[in-house]
Amino acid sequence: MRVSRYQSILCTVCLLVFASSLLRAAEGRKYVLAIGIDGLRTDALDAAKTPNIDALKKNGSYSNTCKIQGTRYQKSDTISGPGWTSYLTGVWADKHGVHDNEFGGRRINRYPHFFNLLKQQYPDYKTASFIDWYPIDKFIVSKADIRVGFEAHGSDGYTLFDQHLADRAVKVLAEQDVRATMVYFGATDENGHRFGFHPSVPQYMSAVEKVDQHVGRLMEAIKSRPTYQQEDWLILISSDHGGEGKGHGSGHQIPNIHNIYLIVSGASAAKNEFNQQVYLVDLVATALKHLDVQAKPEWQLDGKPVGLLGAQ
Ligand SMILES: [Zn+2]
Predict the structure, then answer these.
(1) Residue 49 is part of which domain span?
(2) Is residue 292 part of a domain?
(3) 5 lies in a domain?
(4) Ligand 1 centre from 135 Cα, in Å?
(5) Structural domain total, the chain
(6) 141-199 residue pLDDT tens
(7) Were both Cys, which of 12, 151, 223, 270 would link to 134 (CB 3.0–4.6 Å)?
C-alpha cells in the first residue's frame, strides 16, 4: 500500500499528540524504590567503592546511625526476621510480633507490609517485590502485583540470586508503571557470616561493591523510562542490622550492629545529613508520605516521614 504524504504527516502528528499526552499524564507522578541490603555495616559502606550509592547519598538525606530498634521497645533480637519486618511494616516488634527468624508470633494481618497500606488508599497502584531471603516473601509480603521470591541456596547462593533479582527488577522498573518496589539483596549478610563483617574482609567488601553495581543498574533502568523526566522517584536504602565478627545476634549494645544506614534520595528529598535521630521504622512512613498516602491512626505506625523536603 502506498502511504500518501498526507497520511504520513497525519501519522506523525498523532504520534506526537500521543507522546505528549503520555508525558502530561506522568507529570509529577510519584514512585518509591526501597532497596534492602542485608547485614550492611556502616563503616563497610563508607570504605567500599560504591559510586552508585554515594550518588544517591549526595542527592538526598542520610544517616549512619539509624537505629534498628526503638526507644519504646528493644526486646527483639538484632537479626533478619525482626529487622526486615520492621523495615517493611513501619512498626516495632511489640506490634508486628516477629522477634526471631521463626516468625512464630507474627501479627502481619494486623500490621501488614506497606504495600497493603498503600493499596488501602490507592487500590490501582501497582507494587513489586523482589526477595531472595525466602521467609520475608513467605511471611511478610502481601499485595505485591509482581512478586519474585527466590530461595537462595548453594554455596554463595545469594551472590547468584541477587543477580537474578536485579535482572528481574531492572526489566520491571524500566518497562512497567509500578508505584512501589522493594528489592532485597542478601549476599552482604551471607559473606559477613562466612568471612566476617568488617571493612578489612575482602569477601565482605566485594559483596558490598557488587550490591552497589546492582543499585547502579536499578537506577539506570529508572532513568531509561521515557517519562522519567516527568516522574518523581524516591529511593530509600537501608538494612536490617550490621555485624561484628561473624555474627550480629544479641547486638543491642554493639553500635556496629544496631546502627545502620538510612538513605532517602531523589528530587523530593532534602539534601543533608540527618540532624535528628532516625529509625528503621521511619522508612515506611517516608515511603507512604511521598506517595501521598494519608496514614490512618489505626495503622499505629511507629515511624515518621524523614528526609523529605518540608517533612522535617
Ligand atoms: Zn539480616
Answers:
(1) 27-299
(2) yes
(3) no
(4) 11
(5) 1
(6) 999 999 999 888 766 789 999 999 999 999 999 999 999 999 999 999 999 999 999 99
(7) 151
CA dist 279 and 277 (Å) reads 7
Least Cα distance to 152 among 142, 163, 144 occurs for 163
- Is 241 part of a structural domain of the chain? yes
Distance between Cα 188 and ligand 1 center (Å): 9
CATH number of the structural domain spanning residue 174: 3.40.720.10
Burial of 234 (0-12, 13-18, 19+ CB in 10 A): buried
Query: Is 16 exposed, middle or buried, given 0-12, 13-18 or 19+ CB atoms closer than 10 A?
Result: exposed
Using the mean position of ligand 1's atoms as its centre, give its distance from the Cα of residue 194 in Å: 13
pTM of the model: 0.93
How many whole angstroms from 77 Cα to the centroid of ligand 1? 11
Residue that has been written with the C-alpha cell 528503621 in this structure? 280
CA dist list (Å): 281 to 44, 304, 305: 22, 8, 10
Q: How far apart are CA 100 and CA 194, in angstroms?
A: 20
Please give the single-letter amino acid code of residue 183: V
